[in-house]
Amino acid sequence: MVQTIRINKFFTDHGICSRREADRLIESGVITINGRPAKLGDQVSSNDVIAREGSVISREKANLYIKYHKPVGVTTTSESHIPRNIIAEIGHPRRIFPIGRLDKDSSGLILLTNDGDIVNEILRAEFGHEREYLVQVDRPFDQSFLHHLSRGVVILGSLTKPCRTIRVGRDQFRIILTEGRNRQIRRMCQALGYRVTKLHRTRIMHITAEGLRVGQWKELTSQERERLLQSVGRDRS
After folding, report:
1. Residue 37: φ, ψ to 5°
2. Which of 84, 93, 137, 165 has the CB geometry, 3.0–4.6 Å to 194, for a possible disulfide?
3. Backbone phi, then psi, for 105, in 5-degree steps?
């Protein structure tokens, strides 16, 4: 019996895009299976010919993991029409997409890959993968501010998970999160009466931006890659 997988998983398995982006492509009508338009939920096998806008998609797969020091002003999106989108800024010859987001007004470390399955494994809050940020706010704060942040703040209708905070200066602190809600740190500070003036991500799990110039990217080292895959429960590859 020939094994089949969902069409959107085919796209992630072959480093083309995320499942959500694959669904959008399928709905737009540019994907075909053996010459017929693909539908959401279609199953495909190794015997099927899958094409995008008439071009057959290669079945060769080689997972790629990149770290990038994102400057302020770059938008974390794969949409090519967005000015200064992260894909155009990096200019990698292979198709990659970002793991999570980093606000346009924020800078620092972000990971990119062609491995669609690893995205949820890294981002899902229940897995508890850490992300560390250096934050500057618009005025000096006292210790109670950091204590309140660490216990959790109600944003977007619910309490944020407990986190770690470390004072760096009169108006600067480090914060280590295990979840990633939309504009979470900015919203947490705003809820306590402060405005974030600078936000820089320094670490995702064990991976740091150390040694990366602003705007520079590089592939993960073999040690970084191995530890990344182990941390999401995968065998070494």
Report:
1. -60, 135
2. 137
3. -85, 0
Which residues have CB under 8 Å from 137's CB, separation 6+? Answer: 171, 172, 189, 194, 195, 196, 197
The pairing of beta strand 196-204 with beta strand 207-208: antiparallel
Q: How far is CA 77 from CA 31, 74, 81, 83, in A?
A: 21, 9, 10, 10
Tokens for 39, please give them: 């539908």
* Residue 99 Cα to chain centre, angstroms: 2
- Residue 149: Cβ-neighbour burial (10 angstroms; 0-12, 13-18, 19+): buried
Report the CATH number of the 4-56 domain. 3.10.290.10
> Which of 158, 227, 233, 145 minimizes the C-alpha distance to 190?
145
Q: Which residues are catalytic?
A: 103
Rounded CA gap, 87 and 162, in Å? Answer: 33
Confidence at 237, pLDDT banded by 50, 70, 90? very low
- In the chain, the amino acid numbered 208 is T
Tokens representing residue 147 in the block: 């204590």
CB atoms within 10 A of CB 214: 11
Structural contact between residues 98 and 212, judged by C-beta atoms closer than 8 angstroms = no
Q: Count CB-CB contacts under 10 A for residue 44.
A: 18
Q: In this model, does residue 235 exceed pLDDT 70? A: no
Q: Look up the CATH architecture of domain 130-204.
A: 2-Layer Sandwich (3.30)
Rounded mean pLDDT, 221-232: 85
Token pair, residue 91, equals 């200019």
Domain 65-124+206-231 has what CATH class? alpha beta
Per-residue pLDDT at 236 exceeds 50: no
